[in-house]
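Following up on my earlier message about guanosine-5'-triphosphate. Here are the inputs again, as you asked, copied directly from the submission form:
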Amino acid sequence: MAFSFSDLIEEARLSAQALKDYSESIFSPTIRLGVTGLSRAGKTVFITALVHGLSRGGRFPIFESLSTGRIAKARLAPQPDDAVPRFAYENFLATLIEQRQWPHSTVDISELRLVIDYQRKNGAERSLTLDIVDYPGEWLLDLPLLTKSYEKWASESLALSRQDPRRRVAREFHAHLATLDPNGRENEQETLVAARLFTKYLRDCRDEQFAMSLLPPGRFLMPGNLAGSPALTFAPLDVPLDGTPPDRSLWAMMRRRYEAYKDVVVRPFFRDHFARLDRQIVLADALSAFNAGPEALQDLEAALAGILDCFRVGRSTLISSVFRPRIDKILFAATKADHLHHSSHDRLEAILRRLVERAVARAEYSGAKVDVVALAAVRATREAQVQRGRDRLPSIVGTPIAGEMAEGEVFDGETEVATFPGDLPTDLQGLFKGEETFRGLAAGPHQEADFRFLRFRPPRLATGDPEGPALPHIRLDRTLQFLIGDKLQ
Ligand SMILES: Nc1nc2c(ncn2[C@@H]2O[C@H](COP(=O)(O)OP(=O)(O)OP(=O)(O)O)[C@@H](O)[C@H]2O)c(=O)[nH]1
Ligand SMILES: [Mg+2]
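Thanks, got it. Here's what our run produced:
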């Protein structure tokens, strides 16, 4: 494989950064923990709960160093990287605890530094610096673009947009495309309209829940602070795979901007952020994917494979030579497990494990250690047994968000209700083929239900604790043990 000069420079910059990170870490060991997942997966809530639990000394029986008292305290420290926004921890926490609301969607990368003072097993006092980096999973799915020409990307994107069911939502974009002449003169207005309609098509795919997680370019849906810039204003044109665009043509303009997207957006992200991570947790809203059906599940699996591709090491691809990930542990987590009765948590984990195993096979992955967990960063429900006729059914109790509906009833956001969470299917094979569906118990054992999860408000917390209220969770302690337990020995 030939390397270009710019790759060598890239490599040199990377080594310089690695050396700087390394020399800092000799004096104070630092772990950079990446937290990612597709939009709405639960990243913001996860980080807020994790930091709160650590700094308050939460109930974490399986997180050994905390439960045995070796962690003296964990405290926030000033933000390390000047060019990365700080994760707005205090606001998110106040929203969760005081207003009992979920925090707003976030669209950019952000970071928070936590210092954990602890006692080693041999008694020595130490501190570990934990840098937590929150970034949209959509950005990772851009990695394959780096080795793809504009023409190849355009032909793949258009082919996809002409398949059902995507074709239906691409209609408006296709109509505009038909009016464009790639060899005609470059035209900013035509390009703006094309980019807008193409972005709308991507967004509609996502909103309508089909093939939704695989929609590069990732920044079209998650623009961060780059919304509206030329590097984000392009669209695929019908052009031959091996052609050369005429000077100053529409085609040349689109191609130039596509290359700019790779240079100013994709490469810097992988170089400055991704390549510096030590550990990674990938959150997935697997329950919503079950709800949406087998296509959504297959789509999630494809997205997981795409994400895993980024962590793959040891393959002599151009990508792995430019961005050599140093991550040695990856945890895949199914979030929002509090929507299920605890008897189903293991099953949720098994389904995620299955998804991840298939994704590992698909990405021909070998590299960091991978594990899975089903968790709820903030547990919004409690469990109860509810009598229904002669049966006592395992149910969950919570306060549905105002406006949520079930069986014709609209909730006001104040009233607590008990609901019967669906039963996760046992036949995993059937689940992926669409033979088994997720069933709501309320519909009876043989009827298929259009089971929708109720969304609950964050929990009401017990007051009176001098340290302030603790947020209840599911398996956050196990998550911490996997991610950083070994660094606190
Ligand atoms: N019941 C429950 N709901 C959760 C939990 N975590 C997240 N949610 C729900 O999922 C939504 C999205 O969570 P966020 O943490 O904002 O997700 P995100 O990945 O940061 O989303 P973006 O910022 O849009 O990328 C929240 O508004 C909640 O409705 C949880 O632990 N339990
Ligand atoms: Mg967020």
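One observation from looking it over: Confidence is low (pLDDT under 50) at residues 437-451. Hope that helps, and feel free to reply on this thread.
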